[in-house]
What we know:
By secondary structure, the protein is an alpha/beta fold. The chain is built from 20 helices and 20 strands. Helix 5 runs parallel beside helix 20. The longest helix has 35 residues. The chain is globular and about 90 Å long. About 3% of the residues have low confidence.
Amino acid sequence: xxxxxxxxxxxxxxxxxxxxxxxxxxxxxxxxxxxxxxxxxxxxxxxxxxxxxxxxxxxxxxxxxxxxxxxxxxxxxxxxxxxxxxxxxxxxxxxxxxxxxxxxxxxxxxxxxxxxxxxxxxxxxxxxxxxxxxxxxxxxxxxxxxxxxxxxxxxxxxxxxxxxxxxxxxxxxxxxxxxxxxxxxxxxxxxxxxxxxxxxxxxxxxxxxxxxxxxxxxxxxxxxxxxxxxxxxxxxxxxxxxxxxxxxxxxxxxxxxxxxxxxxxxxxxxxxxxxxxxxxxxxxxxxxxxxxxxxxxxxxxxxxxxxxxxxxxxxxxxxxxxxxxxxxxxxxxxxxxxxxxxxxxxxxxxxxxxxxxxxxxxxxxxxxxxxxxxxxxxxxxxxxxxxxxxxxxxxxxxxxxxxxxxxxxxxxxxxxxxxxxxxxxxxxxxxxxxxxxxxxxxxxxxxxxxxxxxxxxxxxxxxxxxxxxxxxxxxxxxxxxxxxxxxxxxxxxxxxxxxxxxxxxxxxxxxxxxxxxxxxxxxxxxxxxxxxxxxxxxxxxxxxxxxxxxxxxxxxxxxxxxxxxxxxxxxxxxxxxxxxxxxxxxxxxxxxxxxxxxxxxxxxxxxxxxxxxxxxxx
Length: 618
C-alpha cells in the first residue's frame, strides 16, 4: 500500500534550485533513509513531505486517514512549559480531547461527557498520559515537572522524540533523530524502530543506525533521486557502479559531441535545414559531456606541526559542580599520535574535561602539564558565529590565502574549500545562505587549517553529511598528531580511535583498550552474565547469610530480598491497569485515575529495578 506519493515536485530558493520534477513513494512498513550532501535539500524535502512547507510545483498525496509524526532537525519547544506539558502541547488534538473530557467530568454535563468520551475513543487517548510517562521514562526523562528551558540539548531532543512516538503514527518522518542523543539513547531508538512495524522515512548520517534500521536508501544527488535496496554496504557498491557508468557515458558523450561539433562547424549553411531531432540530440550531448564525476575524497595529508616527546600530562584532576562529581583524581600521560574516543551519558562531564585540558576552565584540584611543542586545534560542540555578510571564501582567507601541505607544497583557499566539498559557485556566496551542516563543515575546515598537532573534537559529526564524514575520517587517519574525539557516531569512532575514555559516572573515568564496538560487545556479555547469575544468587541466598562478595550490610540484604517481591507486584499492577485501559468497559472516572496511576507504577518500577541492579553488583 502506498502511504505517501510525491509527484514531480520542484523547489528552489531564489537562484538555488534544490530539486526538479522529483518523484518518490513510501509504502507501508518500509524503512527508508535519505542521504545527500549538506545543502542538497534533504530537510526541505522532509518538510514538504510532512506538509510543513509548500512546493513550487508538483503534488504530495497520502492515503486517507494517514497519521504522520514529524521530528524536525531543530524542534520548536516552549521553554516556559513543563516537560509533560510540552509533550501534550506538541499533540494538540490529543491534549484538547483530554482537556474537554476533564472539563466535562468537572462540570457534570452528561451530554458533553458522552461527546468527550467518543472523541477520546476515536483518538485512543485514554492511556495518552500514561503512554507519555512510559515513553519519557524509556527515554530517561524522570522529572516531568522540570521546565523545558532548563534542559540540555540531548534532553530537549528526547522530549521532541517522545512527542512523535507517543501517538504511534502510521508514518514517522525523522530529520537527524540521533543528533544530541547519547549512545544508550541511540541504541534504544535503533531497537524501537527496527523492531516495530511503523513506517519510517529519515535523514541520518549515523551509518550504524542507518544500517540497522533501514532496508532501502534514497540518495539525493544533482537534483535527482536514486533508490538502492539494501544496507549501507550495498548502497556504497551500487553507488560506485553508477558513478563509473555515468563517467563512461559522459566520456562517450564528449567523444560523440566533438565529432558532431566538427560537422556543425564545417557545415554552417546546413544549420537552418538540419532536422530538429538532431539539433536536440546535439544539445543533449553537450549537456551530458559537461557532467563531471570527481572523486569526493582527495589527498588531505597536510603538514603537521612537529610534536615532541612530551605531549600532555594530567595529574590527579578532579572537578565537580555542587553535588555532581564529574571526575576525581584522574591521571594520564598522552603519547604521540594516539587517537582517543570519549564516551558516556550526556551531562557526565566530557565537554568539561576537554575545557579543562585546553585551559578554558580550571579543575578543582590537580595539575596539567602541556608539552612545549603542542598546539591545540579545538572544535567545540556549540560551534562559532560567522559574519553572515562574509562570503565563504573570505572566512578562509581571513586565516590564510595559502595553506601549506608540506615541503614545497601548498594549496590556495579556493582549492582547500573544494577539497572540503565547497564548489566554486558556493565559495562566492554568502555564509548566511549555507545550511546548518555546511556551516559546521566550514567551521571544521577553519580548525584544521591552523596546522594543530593536538586535535580536540567535541561532537564533530553532528549535522555533517556522509561524504564530509568520509573526508574527515580520512584526514584523521593520516593525521600525525594526537586526537581526542567526543562523538555519538559509533561508525566514526570505530574507524578512527585506538582506545576509549569511558565516563562511567560517580567520578570514574576508565581507559578501555579498544573501539566502541568492542566495548559494547563486552558490556553486553557482562549484562547477559549478570542476568544469568542473578536468579542463581537469589535462589542460593539463605535468610541470615551474606552474599558471596560479603559487601552488603544486613539492611541492604533485607532491602535486596524485598525488592524482588515489590518488582513482581508492580509488574502485575501495571499489566492489570493496561488491560483495564484497553478493555473499553472501565468507567470514565476510574479510567482517569488509572491513567495517572500507571505513570507512577512505571516510575517506581524503573527506580526499583535500578536499585536491584545496584545491590546485585555489590
